[in-house]
Amino acid sequence: MDEFGEYYGRSYRLRFGSWNEAVSAAGLEPREPIDSDFIEEPESCPLCGKSNSELDFHHWRYGDNKQGCYLCRDCHDSIHEGDALPSENNNWLIEAVENLVRDHFERHGDLEKYEILSRYNVTSEKLVEYGIQKMKSENKHREGKADDE
């Protein structure tokens, strides 16, 4: 939403307190909250560590077999950057996990597969492995270009 100017995602949170409150104010039915039995909401965002913001549930999988984790709005939006939007790309999950691996590496400095799987409750070990390999390949490519200059 941030790319749409004055109506970016943060403005909803500042004006209404949360996305669900904004949806309610518009006269629509907000999403059902995630069952607390499903996954407990942490004290802070597992990606950036912010503890002073409302956390949103990020879905890796929807429906009866839902799976995901809680993230702050900024981290949630970062994971959906580029082609990682379910409404626009059938391969959104691959893109989202790649973005997650990148963001995790930038903030935590490691590419430990099991840490990423458990910290963010990701659905597929193979997707995380793919994201890690892509990240390593991109870093290697960048390092090669830097050596050429």
Task: Quickly list its features.
mainly alpha; HNH endonuclease; globular; two-stranded antiparallel ribbon
Describe the model:
The chain is mostly helical and 149 residues long. The chain folds into two domains: 31 residues, no CATH class; 108 residues, no CATH class. Helices cover 48% and strands 9% of the residues. The protein has six helices and two strands, in the order ααββαααα. Strands 1-2 form a two-stranded antiparallel sheet. Helix 5 crosses helix 6. The longest helix is centred in the last third of the chain and has 24 residues. The protein is globular and about 55 Å long. It starts with 8 loop residues before the first helix and ends with a helix. The relative contact order is 0.10. This is HNH endonuclease. InterPro entries: HNH_repeat.
Based on secondary structure, the structural category is: mainly alpha
Largest sheet geometry: 2 strands, antiparallel
Large-scale geometry: globular
How many H/I helices? 6
Distance between the termini: 37 Å
* Total beta strand runs: 2
N to C succession of SSEs:
HHEEHHHH
Total domain units: 2
Strand order of the largest sheet: 1-2
Low-pLDDT ranges: none
Rg from alpha-carbon coordinates: 17 Å
Q: What share of the residues lie within helices? A: 40-55%
Beta-strand portion reads: 5-15%
Mean of residue pLDDT values: 81
